[in-house]
UniProtKB/TrEMBL annotation:
This is DegQ family serine endoprotease. It comes from Advenella alkanexedens. PROSITE patterns: PDZ. Pfam families: PDZ_2, PDZ_6, Trypsin_2. InterPro entries: PDZ, PDZ_6, Pept_S1C_Do. Residues 294-354, 404-487 form the PDZ domain. Keywords: Membrane, Transmembrane, Transmembrane helix. The chain crosses the membrane at residues 12-32. The keyword Transmembrane helix applies.
């Protein structure tokens, strides 16, 4: 009996080993015999076994066109400028510029401006990009290169180039760079993001945490994901981390279908939800950046919201699609076209408005001064109206500039290179200060000393600053040959910063 048990045990162990070996060989162990996957499929009704794709050919075809992007920023030396982190700016940069910032690869070298103020160049962040033309045009994210004094692009072969910014667009988070090379550069083929479907395999190639040419894979989790941003995103479960920003999302044909842009995370790292800008929308932006260096968008001058189900029923609509107009800008394109508050916009230039967020995207893609047809639902009927699309500033900064008063526009930088504005009472109460002025523009000596827009000046030398008028009078009396000490409040930090006035 003991011998029989030993023999059974040996056979059991042998079958287990054979089963494991067969599994590693792409086979399955069934009933004591080694069977193929097809045999298992035939033996299990309703069971489908599908082989995983081999990504090797796609990676070989595409990775040479994906680049690593490092950005630098000039700041003044610790002994001459505002450096509250004692010479190590990494935590300050991570706070202001996000987790894409990487530690320095090499010791930064001091540089000097013409006015004698020393400064140094420090790493600001790391990201990814991809080449779309063999003469050196590169797509990346706006947030990867925004605020950089220098942009360094490293190719997959290790060669490094300094890139120049052709143009960038904050709303869509797209930037277009250009590098000069003596050789013909590898490029990625542009795909069709509109043809994407849930469940399709996709790859991401980029430089997560500075680890260049890293490949990750996953599937399309959702399309047209509305996050409240200007564009609907492609949602995937491809592993994307800080440093992947600006890299390509690639389909199994080796075509770019998206630009990796964001992750949804509670920890700051990958948690299974990555968002990419559809390549169709990205290329529309790139074409304008290449031609004009900026993006011009259309606007019609309405405030809109979603159509609730109960409201749709009460208005006689078949469903709750469309954009409900809550306000019409007086004298704007919509006002001139006859659109009224309470109207529901259900179509624009032949495109159906399925949800309210579709309208700004479709209108924004329309060239200003274009005469278009807009379809509205009013008093139980459809009405078609002609509307001439207006133009919207291409960035919030331009919108701010456009809204300045003539007095603001005429403001000139002072001897410190600063333009300042008064603080609101609400701001002073919140910060627990009795006065001060906020920097709205900075150049020259102030910029070289490390001052920034939105810094608050509390005092100059031994003089407390109450408002703009007093600040201008104080600056006008400063000595030409002696540095002035400015007490600067930035976030929760306060520091004295020496600035030498220009002559």
């Amino acid at each position: 009996m003991k011998q029989m048990l030993n023999n059974k045990l040996k056979r059991s162990v042998l079958y287990t080993v054979i089963g494991l070996s067969a599994a590693y060989a792409g086979l399955s162990y069934v009933g004591g015999d080694v069977a193929s996957a097809q045999d298992v499929q035939n033996a299990n009704v309703g069971t489908s076994i599908v082989g995983l794709p081999d990504f090797t050919p796609i990676v070989n075809q595409t990775e040479n066109a994906v680049v690593n992007i490092r950005t630098m920023e000039n700041i003044s030396n610790r002994s001459h400028g505002y450096d509250p982190y004692g010479g190590d700016p990494s935590e300050l940069f991570r706070f202001f510029f996000g987790p894409d910032f990487m530690p320095p690869r090499a010791t930064p070298q001091p540089r000097h401006r013409g006015n004698g103020q020393p400064e140094r160049s420090v790493p600001r962040g790391v990201g990814s990009g991809f080449i779309i033309s063999d003469d050196g045009y590169i797509i990346t994210n706006n947030h990867v290169i925004s605020g950089a004094s220098e942009i360094l692009v490293t190719l997959n072969n290790g060669k490094e180039h300094t890139a120049k910014v052709i143009g960038s667009d904050q709303r869509t988070d797209i930037a277009l760079l250009k590098i000069d090379s003596d050789e013909k550069l590898p490029t990625l083929k542009i795909g069709d993001s509109d043809s994407l479907k849930k469940g399709q395999w996709v790859l991401a190639i980029g430089s997560p945490f500075g680890l260049d040419s890293t490949v990750t894979s996953g599937i399309v989790s959702a399309i047209n994901r509305d996050t409240g941003e200007y564009l609907p995103f492609i949602q995937t479960d491809v592993a994307v981390n800080p440093g992947n920003s600006g890299g390509p999302l690639i389909n199994l044909n080796g075509e770019v279908v998206g630009v990796n842009s964001q992750i949804i995370s509670q920890s700051g790292g990958f948690m299974g939800i990555s968002l990419s800008i559809p390549i169709d929308d990205a290329m529309q932006v790139v074409e304008q950046l290449k031609e004009n260096g900026k993006v011009t968008r259309g606007r019609i001058g309405v405030q809109i919201g979603e159509v609730a189900g109960e409201v749709a029923k009460a208005l006689g609509l078949e469903n709750d699609s469309g954009a409900l107009v809550s306000n019409v800008e007086q004298g704007g394109p919509a006002d001139k076209a006859g659109i009224q508050a309470g109207d529901v916009i259900i179509g624009f230039d032949g495109s159906e408005i399925k949800k309210w967020s579709d309208l700004p995207r479709i209108v924004g893609q329309t060239k200003p001064d274009t005469e278009s047809m807009i379809e509205v639902w009013r008093r139980g009927k459809k009405q078609n109206l002609k509307i001439t699309v207006g133009a919207v500033p291409s960035s919030p900064g331009e919108e701010l500039a456009a809204s300045k008063t003539e007095a603001d526009k005429s403001a000139k930088a002072d001897r410190l290179g600063l333009v300042v504005g008064n603080l609101s009472q609400e701001t002073m109460t919140k910060l627990r200060i009795k006065g001060g002025v906020k920097i709205t523009e900075v150049d020259g000596p102030g910029q070289a000393a490390g001052l920034r827009v939105d810094d608050i000046i509390l005092a100059v030398n031994d003089q407390d600053i109450k408002d703009v008028k007093q600040f201008e009078e104080t600056v006008g009396k400063l000595s030409k040959d002696k540095a002035a000490a400015l007490l600067i409040r930035r976030a929760n930090l306060t520091q004295w910063v020496p600035v030498t006035p220009s002559k």
